[in-house]
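Risk register update: the risk that structure generation would not scale has been downgraded. Supporting records follow, first protein first.
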Amino acid sequence: MYRKTTDDEQERPRNAGYRVKGPGGTAKATPADLTWIKQEIQEINSDAGKGIWRRREWADNIRYCRWDGQSEDGLKHEESLGEKPFPFEGASDTRLRLADMVVQERVRVLMAAQKRGMLSVTQVEASDAAKAAQIKKLMKWLMGSKLRKQLRRASKAVANYQEGDSPAVGFMGVFWHREAALENQTVTLEGMQQLIGQLAEAQEIDPADALAALDMIQDPDQEELAARLFQAVAPHLNEKRARQIARDLREKQTADFPVPYVAYDGPRVQAFRLFDDIFVPSNSRDLQAARMILTREWLTEPMLRERIVSHGWSEAFVAGVLKHEGKTSFPSRSDDQVEGDYSAEVRSHRREDAGQYAGLYEVLTAYWRATNDDNIPGIYMLTFHGQCEEAAKAKELLGYRHGKYPFVAFQRETLTDYLWDSRGWPELLMVDQQEQKRQKDARQDHAQLATIPPIKVPWRRGHLGLVIGPMEQIKERRPGEIEWMKPPDEPKSAKEYARDSERYVNQLTGRPDVELAAQEHILAMQDLVDDWLENMTGVLSMVVQLIMQYMPEDEVARVVGEGFEMDRSTKDIQNLYDFELAFDVTSLDMEQMVKKAQLWQQMLLPMDRHATVRTDRLVAWMARSMDPTLADEVIEPVETADQREAADEEMNFVKIKAGIEPQMAEMNENWPLRLQTLERIVQANPNAIEDMSDTSKAMLEARVKHLQFMTQQIQNASTGRVGAEYATGMRG
């Protein structure tokens, strides 16, 4: 597809960043680090200019139906076009959104599959099913509660990038996010002593040194020094606020102190769009083997200054960034080769709007793999600005024990090994959409001409004023002098051509079509869903790995129950569990689901003479396929259901002994278990039968007979009979 820049073609700085001195870890970013990263940016820009930006722009214009000369009413007007429209003023200029419809159809299928997908969790090295079940419960909580909103939002965005972009690839970032907030607390000198001690420990400052500030506040001359000590233990305080606190404590014995607290501490998923907020080299195949990944944020000035406190960015870095409003290291451009020799000048075209980034500042973060002096690999990250010579902070070793880049790539097709070569549907349907638009415009133009065709008038009366409208009168000198022109007939082949085009698009995209085998549509959608769920499994796996590393034990216990011990070693985090999400696309068709249920009931279950089918799982699968939300509400584990059935039958025995005959149910009861429960009660306590009245004994006999009969009928279709008459003549 596109020629990839190789390492041999570009001479890199000798200290290219792939090696770190000593044991590795946090270290100051050197000028060589920034030079090397900026050279990577230049290579990405150079490769993207060889047609990628043009592909992206064309595809976006097709999907969003954008072209020059459009008018709001969907018709061609000279005022909008700047020239006379063809074939006439007011001709059709339809927005035919074929590519967008295809993309949105597939996005909806992916969202349904993700919501209804069946999740399974197994342990790799051990056979501890109970632990795997608890992890599964944890993942369901994540998808259904903790991450539900942000996961669905991010998934929809990534699905649109995967299906609609060119290159057709989206990215999901998975991070552990801690967000701090402040709340004002009115504290006394005594309370301040305790607070300062806690904050000093968090900042790894000797509490005794920090508490010296409380002795200094009594002396107005030492107010500035006391304020500095307050700032040391609480970096979120500015100098003015710190001095005000010292002054209030001295004069009022109380002060309002902004105390930090954790507003959010948990996993976060985020969608990234290629060439918008994430950038990878052109020769990237497997994302986890990419030589570098860069992400971009556009921040306002207040957001930049807040990062000094929340992220530890240097004030000098923020001051430098504020000098470069709207400037970007990744200009969207297409490079057009001048005709002739390939060494000729290349023309570069920028396509950003002048005010697109007004009031915003670009901040980049680079992720790359490097080894230390012991050849132990790690993932490093560095935040910087393309026009600044100083980084935001030191380069850091990413602390995630799963050992991966915190991103998962969602690629629409594996056309080649390269991520950049995946094609989106607008790119593939570009010509077909334009052709269908031309056909639709022609039909609508023909309809206009057929409805009100041109009027033929004598040549000598060409300036005759005609008023066309209901009940209007047109005066003519001679009969037949003024008449409608007969418009051309609509070509008989037009409908056939339109149908051929529709059938071709349906076959290409995997949409259902009456003239194509239904299996083609099913296979296409199943392939789409399988790829998506495999990638989403990677996202959820990464989320669970971060939870295993960072989530406090008490919070895990609230979700999965007490007694669960989280495995937190690097080996366990990387290799302990296998996850799978699966979904059958035929379950989206209720008619197919009914046929499938009938097949199981009428053919497969009667053949299962050795009881190998777990009918409880079959029922749960069918129910979840039909309605996952309802299934989660009404389906309970077998163990819980058995306990409930046994307890209910024990209560029936109590009712019988009291002379109250229980209902004989025709369905939805575990009759064998209930029969066993009664037999167990009788065997354990024979005296309970002897103490019964004759009426109660008759009730018990009828109850046992009913349960025996229904047990015998389990393998047969329901007959609608309960197998016994009520001893008291009662009816349900």
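Supporting record for the second protein:
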Amino acid sequence: MFSPSEWETDSADNPVSECFSRSCSSSSPERARFGARLSCAGKSPGPHIIEQYLHDSSERGRDRQAVVTRGSFPDAAACSQIAHAGPGRKCPGGSMLYARSSALLVAVLVNILVNIMSAQAFGATAESEAPSRFDQRRQYQDAIHFISSGQRTKYLRLKDKLRTYPLFPYLEYTDRIHRIAYQTPDEIRAFVEQHADTPLAERLRHNYVYSEGKRGRWANFLAFFDPDNATDLSACFYPYALAKQGREDQAMAEARKLWLVPFSQPDECDASFDLWLDAGHPDGATAWQRYAMSMKDNEVTLANYLMRFVDPDDRQFAAQLKLVHTRPENITRTSRFKSTHPLSQEVILHGIQRFARRDPGLAFELLQDYAGQQEFDRDALNDTWAYIGHRLAGIDDGKYLSALPLELRDYPDLIEAMIRHAIGRNRPGDILVLIHLLPAEAQQTSRWRYWKATVLAGSEGQADQAMGQQIFTELSKERSFYGFMSADRLGVNYHFEYQPAAISNDEILSLELTPGIQRALEFFTLGDYTSARREWYFTTRDFSTRELAIAARVAARWGWYKPAIQSLIDAEAWDDLAVRFPVAFRETFLRNARGADIPVNWSLAVARQESAFMADARSSAGALGLMQLMPKTAELTAQYAGFRLSSSSQLTDPQVNILLGSHYLGQMLRRFDNNRVLATAAYNAGPGRVDRWRNDGLSADAWIETIPFAETRQYVQNVLTFAAIYSWQMDLQQPLIYAHEHQKFAPPAPPSQTLSASATDTLPDETM
């Protein structure tokens, strides 16, 4: 006898026999479902198809024997006999079947050819009916609407059409979320495992945990709850769930963690807190701790509620803490705070810190007096001295700062505040001494090397001057605010150090096909930027630096600037300037810069600093869009610009945002005498503050360094640096700070301004 493989070998030149042999050995039930539509083209008919065919034939009045003897199509047994006998051999069942084998094979050939033609026609029809990506996007949005509006039958009709769409997992997720109460643990686990490479796995788990907690299904809740990765609302259920499962001690410990915070917890925590309180908690120390935390965090209403839990013996100190917090001047009445109790000492130190916000000099003297009467905790006392020192650095002439009873090396932030104090008062000796008190790592930053060089260059000693010039020379090779300032001092070109990553188009196209990237780009195309960013950052979180650099190019290709910039930052690919500083919305920025009469590189730099060109950006303060405009500011600017702003939602439209942002920059520029340094600070902190901060006795670099707000200080430095980079990118030939801007401040201005970059620093045309 011959095996099926031997039959194929013996009949290698006979495609019909080869197909027929594979038919006999096939056992795939899927092929039976397709019946005669399957052919030898990769999907050979097998025994199940034969059985299906026989069944269909019998339905038309033909029995098995008739089918076999007339040669229409063999049954499985006949096929087996023919396969084992082989061409030209007698079948074990007799010569009659053998005699009909040739006719039977011819019939099979005809049938298979018909099947091939049917399959091709079917395939062509299926291909023509397959929805395009454009159609799938519309169908996806329809499907989401059907799920959300309870039209699940309509959703199910669309579902199969979208199985190949990148966002199909989101349909399944949305469907499960809307039926979360009916999901079984096994269904949740299956989804989480299947979609572990998406943000959806954790999101579904979080939703399921919360849902089970709300319904009191504590076994399921605990099975899926992760204490290290839980939402605040679900965490509220955790102690109660533990208690319901008999884990009382752990439940009490977890309830204490929830309770001991300086803010009010959501209602979901009430059941856990009730259990904890019923068990006799909190003790006096815990009650005081939360009361003090809440008061110091300015949660006065919560602190008032918590007073009921404070030990009766401690309530006098709680009342004093509230008094000095809400009316700090009471701390000057030293006779009221004679007690040496530790809680009284805590009240005194908090009261002095609060009072230092008004009068740091008097606070200094008060702390000296109290320190002579009390035995304060050493660390708490020193922290209070340091706090007063920070307040003094903004206003003191040096009288109190120099008398701080601290080991300054232990407080580098205070040292930096004192350096700025010395810069603002032009005390070069103090600057140099204080810089040397900083940790070695801090001394080597561009900032403090620049100011060390500034002091040395102004010295009368030639050796000091030479050292200062040497530091400026080293700094001038850096692409930074202090590097560009140093280059201006020396009158040399800026060093941009443009080094694009060598990335092939094949690498870009390959990464673009990554499922997570595909999902992110689909959301981006649909305008769902929040979901797009969530997918992007989830997918790229474990990328290598090389993959991040490629991902940045993918995002840049799509005009999706924020992820492109962030990916290069994560990859520390600092020199790929074309992607890190894209000339985004170029025509819109150019048009509005002309209309507002401002430098276009400046407005681009502001947008790059504010949002990295994220159209839907929204700050915690409510600023919106690319250039982060507050709605009220935008409304007033729109009136000034003759533009009708009907809704603040328009600020997420780049065209509207750039128009109003450019005009607001123009307003600030004209208010501050065409000085971008002051106007940039005003854009960030408000023009009123800049009016108060102005000091014509300081040079431009000194004024920037002494801006009281650290955020605004860094903001101004970044915007000016970014503007210089955009100037270079766009071949605009503009310096970091213009000569006329320097003239608004105290001399000396830099000796010369070199506006052009070297030939090797020119960006390729295709990156513009």
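Residues 101-129 form the longest helix (29 residues). On this basis the risk owner (M.S.) recommends closing the item.
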